[in-house]
Amino acid sequence: MIHIAMVEDDTELADVLTQYLSKFNICVTNYEDPFIALSAIALKEFDLIILDLTLPGLDGLEVCKELVTKYDIPIIISSARSDIADKVIALELGADDYLPKPYDPRELEVRIKTILRRFNKQMPKALDEVKEIFTLDEERQEIKKNGKFIKFTPAEFQIMSLMCKRKGFVVSRYDILDSCDFLNSDEDSGSIAVIINRIRHKIEEDSKKPEYFITIRGVGYKLVE
Predict the structure, then answer these.
(1) How far apart are CA 213 and CA 160, in angstroms?
(2) Residues 105, 26 share a domain
(3) In terms of Cα–Cα distance, which of 35, 37, 36 is closest to 6?
(4) Which helix (H) or strand (E) holds 91?
(5) Distance, C-alpha 8 to centroid of its chain
(6) What separation, in Å, do the N-terminal and C-terminal C-alpha atoms of the chain show?
(7) Neighbours of 197 (CB within 10 A)
(8) No. of H helices and E strands in the chain?
(9) What single-letter DSSP state applies at residue 121?
(10) Residue 151 is part of which domain span?
């Protein structure tokens, strides 16, 4: 099993990433406080560190500097800070990758795998064996379930495409309206709920008891696997 230390004060994001990565035999221990994180990393063995830059009490770049100075552990910066200077400084300090938020958890998993292979870490076999149920190919405008192509209308595709990109995260109705420009032109769409119901008929065993495209009451929707 791969052991990762995450330094992230966004607990919702940390929970989503922890649950997602666990499917790939990756155990994540999250620390909201950077000082506690530094103490824990000094005492325990980790294969990789995922580090946010905006942290309470201590800037993430300072944490990165201390980690690089003391340990030979690969670091992925996971940050919402868009300033190119932060990215340059982090990489110059010795971080191995910089992943701007928001991102697809799948991308994080691939980057972890790539970096650990570069560091000659032994990757668990399960990491390559786990397959996603839903796959999105934006170039071909295709979405497949367990390798089988599903035909969607333009509005259905845009919504399902958004959900695939935000897999594991809650997507609000506002996010859907803002991202999907085919909604108004889709025939007999009526509402987002109607389109989502059509999607469920195509991807669920029982559309009335969805396992994958679930409703988070009062908040929005989530695609889970």
Answers:
(1) 9
(2) yes
(3) 37
(4) helix 84-93
(5) 13
(6) 21
(7) 15
(8) 9, 10
(9) P
(10) 134-223
Q: What phi-psi label fits residue 147: left (phi over 0), alpha (psi between -120 and 50 degrees) or beta?
A: left
Buried b (16+ CB within 10 A) or exposed e, 32-41: bebeebbeeb
Q: Consecutive sets of 10 residues in the chain, 225 residues long: mean pLDDT of each?
A: 93 92 91 96 95 93 95 93 86 92 88 85 51 86 93 93 89 86 54 91 94 91 89
Query: CA 157, CA 148: separation in Å to the nearest integer?
Result: 15
pLDDT at 96: 93
Q: Which two tokens stand for residue 93?
A: 């300090």
Helix (H, G, I), strand (E, B) or coil at 8: coil
Q: Which two tokens stand for residue 50?
A: 């995922």
Asked if 158 and 192 sit in the same domain, the reply is yes
Same domain, 124 and 21: yes
Q: Which residue, of 129, 156, 180, is where some domain finishes? A: 129
For the chain, the domain total comes to 2
Per the DSSP assignment, residues forming a β-bridge with 214 are: 222
Q: Identity (one letter) of the amino acid at 39?
A: S
The dihedral through the CA atoms of 12, 113, 98, 29 has a sign that is positive
Phi-psi region of 41 (alpha: psi -120 to 50; beta: other; left: phi over 0): alpha
Per-residue pLDDT tens digits for 174-202: 889 888 876 654 444 458 889 999 999 99
Cα-flanking dihedrals φ and ψ of residue 119, to 5°?
Answer: -85, 5
